[in-house]
Amino acid sequence: MSHLNGIQSKQLNQLNSKDGEAFTATSAPGWFIKGNSTYGEAFSPERPGNLVKFFTTGSDYFKDVASAIKNAKKSIFISGWQINYEVRLEGDTRLWDCLNHALRKKGETPDIYLMPWLSPKAAVDTGDLETMVAAFILNAGLKKKKVWCLPAIQQSDMGSLGLFFSHHQKMVVIDNEVAYVGGIDLAYGRRDDNNFRLAADGRTANEFYNPCIPALKEIDPHQQYPYMTTVELISAALLEGDVLSKAQRKLAWAMDNKMFNVLRQAKKEVGEWFSDKGKDGMRLLGAGAAYSTGSVLYIAEFVKRQMTGDNLEAWKNTLRQWKVSLDGAVNTIDQEAQPLKKTDSTLTELRQEAKSISLAIGVWLEKPQEASAIQQRVEDWLVRAQQKVPMLTSMTQSGRARLQNQVGQLKSEVQMWVQRVTPQLDQLQQDLSTWATQIIKSGGQLTDKLLNEGSELTSLWIQQTGLGAFYAWINNTPSPILTAKALQELEQIATPFILYLHSVLDRLSETQKDEPYSYLADPATRLLPRGGMMLDDKTQPRMPWHDVHMRLEGSSVYDLSRNFIDRWNSLQARFDGKVQKMPSALIGLLKFATKNLEPVPFKAHYLAQPERVAPTGEMNVQVLRSAPMRMRNEERQGAAKAGHNLTSAAPNGVQANCLQAMLQAISGAQHFIYIENQFFQSEYGADSAETAAVTAGPMQSLMKIEGLPGYEIYKDRLRLGNLQDNPKSLANVDYFELARMIRNKEAETFTQGVMQVLSNQSTVEILKGMQTPQNAIKNPLCEALAERIERAIEMGENFHVYMVLPVHPEGPLNALNLMTQVHLTMQSLSLGEQSLIKRIQRAMAIKAQMDRGKTETQAIESIKFFKDRTETKRVFEDEDWSRYLTLLNLRSWEEINQQPVTEQIYIHSKLLIADDRIAILGSANINDRSQMGDRDSELAVVVAGSTSLPTSINGRMQYPVCPQVKQLRTDLWRKIFALNAQPRKNSVQPASDLEKVIATPAAAATWQAIQRQAFSNAEAYEQAFRHVPRNDASIWPLWGQVSVAPPSSSAAVKGASNAMPFEKEFWLSTMAGKHPTTVCGFITALPIHWTKYENNNSGFNLTILAKIEPTRDRAATSQHYAVLAQDTQSKERT
């Protein structure tokens, strides 16, 4: 209890008056950090002279940053975990439009630098590829290059797990004068206001955002013309001008209204060029397009001509052998033809073709082309040579014999290659190859059998191979399920492809002619949502977004510019002079674009150090980072190559500034702490006894294939019996029989369940295998909060912590990582043995026992026991922890199409306020990824005023507060109490009674009033909507209340009422929701006993947990196929 500032001990001496009366002490803690050996070097010092403006809504921030971007004169720096070029900032004005305006306005125009995180497509796709391509297109028509974009590859210290870590910073700097920092990415779904509308309210496509529920509305192929795919965007960047880009779009739609052909100019008339190159284009596999003739033909050709990475080196060696044999044949013919001085047309043709193939092989070894094309040419030449050589009369007998031997040698080499490669193909690849051959031979005359078989095989190809997953991803149709093998292979393809494409676009951007692609420049043309699916605005809600951001002017802008420039230069140095080649697995992918696409050494574009910024304003600010050692070392290398003065010593550890500052603020707080955070996952000791005893439940149903209804019936037919011994792949499954069952819609719930469980098992196993997982959460923020409250309990202080968290992380509640995160959050808050609530209860119980005369040792011993033999609670668990802690979620409801609908308001903030004197806000979540310093990079700021205002925050005495920080908390409370919302019928009403307590956050009457309203709201929601989380309920509150059998008809589906929102059935059924008209404000009480009787820990690798995109089975109904694995506690919970 001596670590008052979280970093160093303080000695407090009592000051007394002459009469011996103790003076009232007011702490003046040091809110700003200094570097030390535990948490590393501070990124920046505290700087006075800053002007700060806080944003409590995304709409206010977006409007402000849009204006700043459009009016920029010198430079624009943007970094983010997610940056979407088409995000709407104000009205229908996109980020891309603001950047384009800045480049083409009169007067000074800025240089623009974008640095989105290069997301691993195997885990999560944030749209960085599309943003990179759209950014380079901005250069079209400019006199000189003004836009650079380099997706930031991870720079963590996490070794083989590194690809799962991110750059999580969210920052914009304009002209080194104005900066924005906080929790809001320039991304889909973030623009919200005080109303938290659930209705679409004009939003559509990717902006109509709710990742917690399945998208129901399919954009029909013939309606996809207003949308662009990733492929089309790439083609527009490579076509060097708008005229050709528009031509390829119109011609592609004219040929096949369901798909685009991606083409490139070849110095011919457009029509001639189209017919010549169109067959080699990339084609959109859009919604429903898998059933069109053109798409099936293209997939077949794509499959047939690709080589696996494993075979590439062997293929190169084989080609060298073939080249030797072909060159030998050419030499033999030349030797024979010269002395005979004769010409033979057959001999001449054989020679010319052999020479041509030999030259092609030589080129291929230096420049990738399609492997299968060369092999086919060699095989065709062998057929002709075997037919013609024996009949040649223009050669000597010895020459003919020598040529026949060379032909035989080449034939033997080809046969050896075929025999060597074919056995390496698994059954799926062999069936795919056979099918592809049949398709190509059909000449487009496709039978229903071939189409259906192709649909099954390509679906499995996409789910089980990285190449298939890549093909689907780049055509905006990713599979909801990927095997672990496919995940690994996809990452080995996707990231190198993006870096290769970057190197090409970086070079070609200066040659862009005309104006930017007009379809991209038109805000009405949107990116096609993944899979051609979007939410149905007639029945489904968006997920409202709550976040905090800040505008900064003054001296600390320099530090934010320096952060961007250091990171930018570190990446430039990493790639400086390196050649980024096309991944070997994608040989021939861009054959349509043969001009100027050869990779060349990367030409780095280093940025100079920023200038110091003059102070303005009265706020003190310190910029904080979480920065891995690898990132810091690479920043130093980048600074050296950029010619910066290296004034500081080489890094000797990570920067964990965010953790240090939060610990210091928590320990130094005197009256109250207010926290909003996307996560609360912190060290909590052992799991609760109830959790440890669970052997069945929702999580177990998703991980155990033997728990699926129908397992005993189908296990032998699908060869499922041995999967428990090797759950890492689908190799043991009779996938063709599974495909046949899927095609016939036989046991549909079971087959969907098989795919989901196998995918879950293999994903967990492979992530464990990549690196030994850590055993428990490490960050000490839960302990710090507990210690501060324990000190208040011991000293008899009035102290309170308010914490606002999301109901659950964004995503469907049947996703493994999300369920595990819920488990960790509940254990950290209330269920774990050293959880925050249990720590508070223990301290209260010990204090009560000691007040009765017991020693501390006696008190600690006495509270361990159960109250009596019939009780399941220990003595200390009766203590009322709510005197010191208020835990809140946010939720809204609204009537959509005359039906009451509810959804959580997603808390994405990363904010801590102490005593209305200090605010810490930025990108750092309360979890290991953000706080430990060696994982995700983070950016935050400590903000405090240089002057204070005496205020009665507890309703009794005056204490100094920072007016700006107090106003931030006031605005946030008014927002979450719905005091700033526009009242609407059939929706949330303002919590007007809470307005009078906003000014006194440290008063008992305040937290009591807030808790009463939150509990009242929670009760109203629970009565109105059976599926919302609640105490003593399953993670799926309706678990155990559903039927084992799947619905037998559409009528049965319509009448179902026990599905969860992550299931399609929930939205197809008649909802049983009521109108919770008594709800006032958006706050609800967090249910501290939710999931108490379950174990939802999937075994996911804790080292990486938090930012992996959920694996979703949008078609599966996980409750239906999982219900046989019942929890023995189910009767108590339902």
TrEMBL record:
GO terms for molecular function: phospholipase D activity. It comes from the Bacteria. Keywords: Hydrolase, Lipid metabolism, Repeat. Transmembrane segments: none annotated. Pfam families: PLDc. InterPro entries: PLipase_D/transphosphatidylase, PLipase_D_fam. It catalyses: a 1,2-diacyl-sn-glycero-3-phosphocholine + H2O = a 1,2-diacyl-sn-glycero-3-phosphate + choline + H(+). The keyword Hydrolase applies. GO terms for biological process: phospholipid catabolic process. Residues 163-190, 903-930 form the PLD phosphodiesterase domain. This is PLD phosphodiesterase domain-containing protein. It comes from Pseudomonas fluorescens.
